[in-house]
Design goal:
It contains six helices and six strands, in the order H-H-H-E-E-H-E-H-E-H-E-E. With about 170 residues, the protein is of the alpha+beta class. The chain has a six-stranded mixed β-sheet, with helices on both faces. It is globular, with a radius of gyration of 15 Å. It starts with a helix and ends with a strand.
């Protein structure tokens, strides 16, 4: 999806995010403003959308991993300390993969993720996920591996698992 189309769809994607994550209005508003800024400004911004009929049922978005941005600054030290520094090059930062509750378990997330990985020019993809969530199983099934299984964001108690996927040499 091209940037203008993705930005126009931002409110609908924020609604999917809210339903999938069971979030209240404030975090959904934050998601939408962050989405608009990142998709509008970041290099390599990519948005994929899954639809069933007229309904948007899922989306994926991310961009080129750029070490000067907030998330890469958070993860760079722990990733390097774990011996995975090369993962920070030629990488795609997968920010969100969300599917409506009604469409979860139907392969929508797998299809979006598989398409992104097969079509992107990057050698690697990085993401953070709930260490105890169902998404972690999806990512493992697609070929992601744990890079930092016990990551905690600076200044918070929020736990995550940092995962990475690497293109195999043909």
């Amino acid at each position: 999806m091209r940037r203008p189309e993705a930005l126009e769809l931002a409110p609908r994607l924020a609604g999917i995010y809210g339903r999938a994550m069971r979030r209240e209005a404030e975090p959904v508003d934050h998601f939408e403003s962050t989405f608009r800024r990142c998709v509008g400004e970041y290099d390599g911004a990519t948005v994929l959308v899954a639809s069933r009929g007229e309904d948007t049922v899922g989306f994926l978005y991310g961009f080129d991993l750029q070490l000067g941005h907030w998330w890469p600054q958070q993860i760079e030290g722990p990733v390097r300390a774990a011996g995975h520094g090369h993962w920070l090059t030629e990488a795609f930062e997968l920010v969100e993969l969300q599917v409506t509750p009604e469409a979860q378990g139907l392969g929508v997330g797998s299809a979006l993720l598989s398409r992104q990985l097969s079509e992107m020019p990057h050698q690697r993809a990085l993401l953070a996920t709930d260490p105890d969530g169902r998404a972690r199983m999806l990512y493992r099934r697609i070929g992601f591996r744990d890079l930092v299984p016990d990551f905690v964001y600076a200044g918070t108690s929020y736990r995550a698992t940092l995962m990475g996927w690497e293109r195999r040499a043909s």
